[in-house]
TrEMBL record:
Protein name: Membrane protein, putative
Presence of the UniProt keyword Ion transport in the record: no
Transmembrane segments: 12-29, 35-56, 77-98, 132-150, 155-172, 184-206, 218-236, 256-273, 293-310, 322-340
Organism lineage string: Bacteria, Pseudomonadati, Thermodesulfobacteriota, Desulfuromonadia, Geobacterales
Alphabetic keyword roster: Membrane, Transmembrane, Transmembrane helix
One Pfam family, short name: OpgC_C
Biological source species: Geobacter sulfurreducens (strain ATCC 51573 / DSM 12127 / PCA)
UniProt key word Transmembrane: yes
InterPro entries for this protein: UCP028704_OpgC
Length: 360
């Protein structure tokens, strides 16, 4: 299957936005839910489902291979998450100044280290910025069942059941309840799995068959209505109306206004991409998308390492200091991955050339 470089570019842009949003500064004014009540996380989860349909949908005739491929990818994401999650408290122990700076963030490790590590391993404890990768790992495990169900009963029944789970997620978070039973200081992070699975399922269903979306976009009146709705969400998001914006911006349960806002934007984005060739890409941004797992994992580590610096930059220089720091963290999160992969490619090429020379 020919790689769609547009998707890698969009995914790279979403990862870049996440990095900037996690640090702050003036750049965040242009990246933090700018288009309405939608963040980069919604786009990334939806796109993950879409890509999974394209990549793993090829193995629907071989269930064993389908399960093997998705499990390996999920386990790879799990390993990256665990590596970062366990490295952070280890660094805090090895570097005394960090113990003070990270005390609040790493409090459970200080109180009950063994219990916290065990809960980390079973994904029942996730610290700041450490909740997206587990969400993605769980969704990948769900991927084979969704693909097989869509093939057997169709996309509409699968989406209906998925939406039912989304509704339940507005009232309860089972994973959070299980985690909190071990202590109030434990939690599964920001994202309610049974709510957010709907975006993944929606992306997966569209990745398998998007004919109904094609028909929707062909209706100019419907497309104009969607565009107007997007403008309303945008205007309301940036208005000075006396509303509880903190409630509207909250995304943990993926409330209905955020879900609708995302779906409307997704329709417009799909329409715009119709006129963009598959081989279109933005240099380096596409590279971030191709290596999003490595870069996202590294950025979490870099953010924690710079946490004491961020506090000082914020107190001394305010938003300007955080802006400069966000650029530094962005560079340190992306460039090492680029250098490492270039080194691996060069080493592999030299090895093959040496092997060919020896065979001659």
């Amino acid at each position: 299957m020919e790689r769609d470089r547009r998707i890698d570019t969009i995914r790279g842009l979403l990862v870049a936005i996440m990095i900037i949003d996690h640090v702050g500064g003036y750049l965040k004014l242009a990246t933090a839910q700018t288009l309405g009540y939608v963040s980069a996380a919604e786009g990334f989860v939806f796109l993950s489902g879409f890509v999974c349909a394209k990549v793993y949908g090829r193995y629907l005739d071989n269930t064993r291979q389908l399960l093997t491929k998705t499990f390996r990818r999920s386990f790879l994401i799990y390993r990256y998450h665990i590596a970062v999650a366990l490295l952070l408290p280890l660094l805090a122990l090895l570097i005394p100044p960090y113990q003070r700076s990270w005390m609040e963030l790493l409090h459970p490790y200080d109180v009950a280290p063994l219990k916290t590590v065990l809960l980390d391993l079973v994904l029942l404890h996730q610290g700041d910025y450490l909740d997206i990768l587990p969400l993605y790992a769980w969704l990948l495990l769900l991927c084979p069942a969704l693909l097989l169900l869509v093939r057997r009963v169709g996309a509409v029944p699968v989406l209906a059941v998925s939406f039912g789970f989304w509704v339940a997620g507005q009232f309860v978070d089972p994973m959070q309840l299980i985690a909190s039973s071990f202590g109030a200081q434990y939690g599964t992070g920001f994202f309610n799995l049974i709510s957010w699975q709907f975006l993944f399922t929606l992306g997966l269903c569209l990745g398998i068959s998007g004919q109904w979306l094609d028909r929707l976009c062909a209706n100019k009146m419907m497309l104009a209505t969607v565009a107007v709705c997007c403008l309303v969400f945008f205007a309301f998001r940036h208005s000075d109306l006396a509303v509880n914006h903190s409630l509207l911006v909250d995304r943990s349960k993926l409330p209905i206004h955020r879900l609708l806002n995302f779906c409307f934007l997704m329709v417009l984005l799909r329409q715009m991409l119709q006129n963009v060739p598959r081989d279109f890409f933005v240099p380096y941004v596409e590279y971030i998308g191709r290596h999003s797992l490595q870069i996202f994992s590294l950025h979490v580590l870099v953010i924690y390492l710079f946490r004491p610096v961020a506090w000082r930059m914020d107190s001394m220089f305010g938003e300007a200091g955080l802006t400069a720091l966000s650029l530094v963290i962005f560079a340190l999160s992306t460039l090492p991955v680029y250098v490492y992969n270039r080194y691996r490619q060069t080493s592999s090429l030299l090895f093959r050339q040496g092997l060919d020379s020896g065979l001659r």
